[in-house]
Design a protein that fits this description.
With 81 residues, this protein is an all-alpha fold. It is 80% helix and 0% strand. It has three helices and no strands. The chain is elongated, with a radius of gyration of 16 Å.
Length: 81
């Protein structure tokens, strides 16, 4: 539980750093470039990189927490049933 909270806090802090432009643009473009090349989709234009990074981070938070919630919920139902 502490690990999940720590990861969520770190992701939110990274998002705040990207949104407030504390995190350098070169780092953001590097992260987005690697992610898009791995998946095989086109890179966003340079002026949209920060917004795309925030979208990816928020998506990962929602997907990760959703998967963990379903895992805990479904294993609880199976254990009780």
């Amino acid at each position: 539980m502490i690990g999940v909270l720590a990861i969520n806090v770190l992701m939110v802090l990274l998002s705040l750093g990207i949104a407030s432009q504390v995190v350098p643009t070169k780092l953001v473009s590097g992260m987005i470039g690697v992610l898009h090349k791995i998946i095989g989709i086109t890179l966003p234009p340079p002026e949209k990189e920060r917004a795309v990074a925030l979208i990816w981070i928020s998506s990962m938070i929602v997907i990760g927490d959703g998967i963990l919630f379903l895992l805990v919920f479904l294993t609880g139902v199976v254990a009780r049933g």
